[in-house]
UniProtKB/TrEMBL annotation:
Origin species: Kaistia hirudinis
HAMAP family in the cross-refs: SRP54 (MF_00306)
Subcellular location: Cell inner membrane; Cytoplasm
Name by which UniProt lists this protein: Signal recognition particle protein
UniProt GO MF annotations: 7S RNA binding; GTP binding; GTPase activity
Amino acid sequence: MFDSLSERLSGIFDKLTRRGALSEADVNEAMREVRRALIEADVALDVVRSFTDKVRSRAVGAEVIRSVTPGQMVVKIVHDQLVEMLGSEAETIDLNAPAPVPIMMVGLQGSGKTTTTAKIARRLKERDKRKVLIASLDVRRPAAQEQLRVLGEQNGIDSLPIVAGQSPTDIATRALQAARLGGYDVVILDTAGRTHIDEPLMVEMADIKAIAKPHEILLVADSLTGQDAVNLARSFDERVGITGIVLTRTDGDGRGGAALSMRAVTGKPIKLLGTGEKSDALEDFHPGRIANRILGMGDIVSLVEKAAQNIDMEQAKKAAEKMRKGIFDLDDLAQQLRQMEKIGGMSGMLGMMPGVGKIKKQLEGANLDDRVIKRQVAIIGSMTKEERRNPDVLKASRKKRIASGSGTKVEDVNRLLKMHRQMADMMKAMGKQKGGGMLGKMMG
Ligand code: GDP
């Protein structure tokens, strides 16, 4: 499904990764091409826009790790953003409810609802060892109930005996009762579809929902219908409420836009992919794996990840070594501040350290949010190397220069220096303890 998009993107990134240095213009040009490729893959327009905006701003702000090229860095950023767009974590069917757990399948006619009902039942039975009952609530299409019964039989799954003349809600009630009496873990209700969304369909779905109180409402949508599938998901969610999406016919030559836009547009996760007509043609939806499939650059992504880990380790080791000697200069402070930004500010960081209650209180009083941290990093960035190593040389005129260089006031510079002094004293005290103190042990 992602073949042509994947080809386009690898073309773009091949060019980019082969270069040594990248200008902002290079990145912009690449982003224009990515945008075009996504639009041609039928990804919703506003999803495309927000995607490329985020990639661009991350790419501009990113520090390039020494052992990778800027192009590789951009690939990694695009990859991470793709994963985020797809929902980050894989989400599967949630069975965390009292048995029998009711699952309701909804969707248009021909989307693959009945086939998917059987696929899910088979998977829950074989992989999760659950006892599953399936029931067709489709009284509109003459052969629908029989179709599900046959599918059940082929896969060794019990289906609710067919009783002619019952309404969908009657069947739902009977299915739940049978599931309870029969000791089933899960009961899957396959509802009727229409060729398009209409009011009676939505009313019927709402009625069934009210009676069955399903733990999961899964929308089955045909990936070949592209943006229509996305709009369908939005309508169903607004009217009935869905808990997840199953995209079918992903083995076909759809352009992938539906899969890529679904999550961002509806806020609901794609949980499963239908990958063929057979009853075992069902896959979990793993955002990370899908992103790899689309980018086709798994090697580069893991290269950058490894390099980033190494850098963190290197820095941490150096910092630990210095701390052991009781040294804590302004470079160290800047580095700590940058890390704090990553892990949720100063109180997040200090919360992880033992024995710093007093300083923590003082720092909290200083209101150290992200903005303050950024300002402090800017102040340190305006100092010379010598000043960072040895803050004692900072007299009034230098402080003035630093304040204007970082767009702050002399008081801000003083406040930062005071904080540094407190931390340096603390580090020194810890450094004197045997073995480098708690912090030394933590970091080493
Ligand atoms: P329903 O009307 O929504 O219940 O649709 P059905 O379950 O009857 O499916 C309609 C057709 O789509 C059948 O021929 C299925 O075999 C086929 N189908 C369902 N899911 C997939 C899929 O993931 N891939 C392919 N290639 N065909 C599928």
